[in-house]
Specification:
By secondary structure, this protein is α/β, with parallel strands linked by helices. The chain is 51% helix and 21% strand.
């Protein structure tokens, strides 16, 4: 009986131990689940940190570019407002509503008001004439203040109630207010606005909030201003921000478990602020909750599910990366990936030579309009496929990217000399010449290559991107070159050209006070009398110094400023011609160079008639010179305009003849009176030996009853040869360089009086 009790007691103790073991197993299981959950949590956080770290270069580069571009645009808008104010104050004594309207159109500002010092609008380019400013109005505060100039942020206008950015400037008799509508400013800046970038970034998966703060920790942009109020910036975060370090931390926001990443943002080597990204950890917390509630069997099952989920997440992330880094049309890497690669490349201290080749396609939009997007996309795919087959793209260290909608990019590594890049460029262009028969005029889709050598000047990705964008934007200005090297000199020239263009636009409103004309005499080879002078425009800029005519005239033609400048040249030359006539210096023709852009302008003929009427000159003493190359590009229209000029009595000279390859049939029907032989042909005359080309030009001119002018005469043998061949008129440094109007007046009197006396003596 006693043994039975012991046995029962032993069984009870054994079951108790089993119970304890079960409890221990459960505890161990829970601990294991907790540890596994913690490991998963750690791994997820680590993965998120690594993923966000990989994306940081793209985020910060895009945001830096947006901030840099936005700052530049805002500065340019303020400069435009101040320029408009200065222009109006310079013309304070000649103000009118029409003048203000003209300034508004030319400088592209929306509001211009001129106030007297009682606060009343006297002149306006808009409405509200006679509107009176009152106490409490911003313009009234400026009027009574000691400030001479004020550029305001965007505010609500007192008169119209419309949000506008204003600049005010005081003059002697009153003050001017110039404004640009906020909606127009936003139209320009929205593309580069950091707020747009912040909102786009916040739309990405797993990102809860995005904030951008300035260097004083003040909020500038965010996707949700309310949520930012709940963020507490701790000591570690403040320290990271102050020390410009990337910082990661897990924290609580609005009772939610989140992951915070902090990145410093730079633009043009200057810290502009800090980007804070808040990632959601909801998915992680859900997983942890499930693990705490299920059994060990379900835990294993969840591990399997998690594995599937992890695979799907990786696939999804890969898909996201593919969308972010691949061009969907050509299936090659895009600009985002190019920026990432270049950012890594320039940080590496490699002795290998590196270069970037930009392949720019022309007339993409024109082809799209004519043939449709699908045809153009297919053509791009074919051209990209051609490039993929090139050896230079396959080799290690070289990659192909689609940089923009009309340009591709190839990164070249480990080449030896510039000639290698030229050879590669020629191979690229040759491979792209013909790819499809779907487009009749595929030459419209021609390609050019811009070559960037990544030298020591390229230490930042921003500089690379900026120079590439500048070169692409100016590529259409390159004429016959298949490829160009972009260097520091090109960068400086582009910046200089932009300054010249700006100064040309200002010159229109200052009456071209920095411009002047020189005159080069034209000598009759048979009588040795001066029979004409060519008016040559010169520019001595207070800001830029003496600017070569070929430089500023080309820029004037491209910016259409040539119409206004050309009108000033014609008026000035005609005034001088009238002075010659009034001084009894008769029968001297004034030759004036005319751009085709001027000639094709709708008001050109009316402008000429008005100038002739105002100056009172004899139109038969006017001669317009037009270059052969430009004429052939617009033959029918230009020739009809020349006919109308001849009807007015104005002579027409075909300048630089021989360089434009005119056809004989067209030359025969051309409304001209003179052929001007280009200096490049005259330079070949070094002796009295026959020059077949010069002889042919002179004989052709005589057959067509045209007079022949030879320019660029610098040697006596050239003069003698042309005189023997019955060339009519010479012009060049042998006789006289371009001189002032006083000097040319004295020269005409001296030469022509001398020849007149000789004629009398001989008779």
């Amino acid at each position: 009986m006693g043994e039975g009790v012991l046995i029962k007691e032993g069984k009870i103790k054994l079951s108790d131990w089993k119970s304890y073991l079960t409890y221990i197993a459960i505890i161990l299981f829970l601990m294991a689940g907790y540890i596994i959950l913690g490991l998963i949590d750690t791994l997820l956080l680590k993965y998120m940190m690594e993923d966000s770290s990989k994306q940081v270069n793209v985020y910060t580069s895009r945001l830096s570019n947006s901030i840099y571009a936005n700052n530049i645009i805002n500065q340019l808008l303020e400069d435009r407002l101040v320029s408009a104010c200065n222009m109006i104050l310079e013309n304070e004594d000649n103000l009118s509503n029409d003048f203000l309207i003209g300034v508004s159109k030319n400088l592209k500002v929306d509001h211009i008001y001129w106030y007297d010092y009682q606060g009343k609008i006297i002149y306006t380019a808009n409405d509200y004439l006679n509107w009176q400013a009152n106490i409490g109005d911003s313009i009234y505060d400026f009027m009574v203040s000691h400030m001479d100039i004020l550029v305001e942020p965007i505010r609500k206008a007192a008169d119209s109630g419309i949000y506008t950015k204003y600049a005010q400037m005081k003059g002697k008799k009153g003050f001017v207010q110039v404004g640009i509508l906020a909606e127009n400013i936003q139209e320009i800046t929205n593309r580069f606005c950091p707020q747009v970038f912040v909102e786009e970034l916040a739309e990405q998966e797993n990102i809860e909030h995005v904030y951008y703060i300035n260097n004083d920790n003040e909020l500038l942009f965010c996707d949700d201003y309310k949520s930012y109020k709940d963020i507490e910036i701790g000591p570690d975060e403040k320290s990271a921000i102050e020390e410009d370090r990337i910082y990661y931390a897990r924290k609580t926001l609005d009772d939610k478990d989140v992951y915070e990443a902090i990145y410093p943002i730079y633009a043009d080597s200057k810290k502009m602020g800090t980007l804070i990204i808040i990632y959601s950890l909801d998915g992680l917390n859900v997983t942890k909750t499930k693990f705490s509630q299920i059994s060990i069997i379900l835990l294993i099952f969840i591990f399997l599910i998690y594995g599937v989920m992890a695979i799907n997440t990786v696939k999804k992330n890969n898909k996201i990366r593919e969308l972010a880094y691949f061009d969907p049309v050509t299936n090659i890497f895009n600009k985002n990936y190019f920026i990432t690669c270049m950012n890594d490349t320039i940080k590496k201290d490699s002795k290998n030579k590196k270069a970037i080749l930009i392949i720019k396609f022309r007339n993409l939009e024109l082809l799209k309009l004519n043939y449709g997007q699908n045809i153009v996309d297919n053509l791009l795919v074919r051209k990209t496929s051609k490039l993929r087959k090139l050896k230079v793209v396959k080799n290690k260290g070289e990659s192909l990217f689609r940089y923009s909608k009309d340009s591709l990019c190839i990164y070249i590594d480990n080449y030896e000399k510039k000639e290698d890049l030229i050879e590669i460029s020629n191979n690229i262009l040759n491979s792209l010449e013909k790819t499809t028969d779907n487009i009749e005029n595929e030459e419209l889709f021609s390609s050019k290559v811009i070559i960037f050598e990544l030298n020591k000047n390229y230490k930042q990705i921003d500089r690379i991107i900026n120079d590439i964008d500048i070169a692409i934007g100016r590529m259409d200005e390159v004429n016959d070159e298949r490829y160009i090297f972009f260097d520091e000199k090109d960068r400086e020239n582009i910046i200089l050209n932009e300054k010249i263009e700006g100064e040309l636009l200002k010159a229109h409103y200052t009456g071209y006070e920095e411009f002047y004309l020189l005159y080069q005499p034209q000598l009759d080879l048979q009588t040795n009398r001066i029979v004409g002078i060519e008016a040559l425009v010169r520019w001595n800029s207070k800001l830029l110094g003496n600017i070569p005519p070929i430089q500023f005239i080309n820029i004037a033609e491209k910016s259409k400023a040539i119409n206004s400048l050309g009108k000033w040249v014609i008026m000035t030359a005609c005034n001088f011609l009238k002075q010659l006539e009034d001084s009894s210096i008769n029968d001297i023709m004034v030759a004036i160079n005319i751009s085709v852009i001027q000639l094709l302008h709708e008001s050109f003929l009316d402008d000429i008639s008005n100038i002739i009427m105002k100056t009172g000159v004899n139109p038969k003493l006017l001669k317009f010179e037009i270059t052969e190359t430009n004429l052939m590009d617009n033959y029918e229209v230009v020739n009809s305009k020349l006919e109308l000029l001849k009807e007015k009595g104005i002579g027409i000279s075909l300048d630089d003849f021989g360089t434009g390859h005119s056809s004989l049939a067209r030359l025969k029907n051309l409304n001209i009176d003179y052929l001007k032989i280009d200096k490049s042909f005259i330079d070949h005359i070094v002796s009295l030996d026959e020059d077949i080309l010069i002889n042919s030009i002179i004989l052709l001119a005589k057959e067509l009853n045209l007079k022949v002018i030879a320019e660029g005469i610098e040697m006596e043998v050239q003069r003698e040869y042309l005189k023997n061949k019955n060339c009519d008129i010479m012009q060049g440094y042998l006789f006289s360089k371009p001189i002032t109007q006083d000097e040319v007046t004295n020269l005409i009197k001296t030469i022509n009086e001398k020849t007149q006396k000789n004629d009398k003596y001989e008779s």
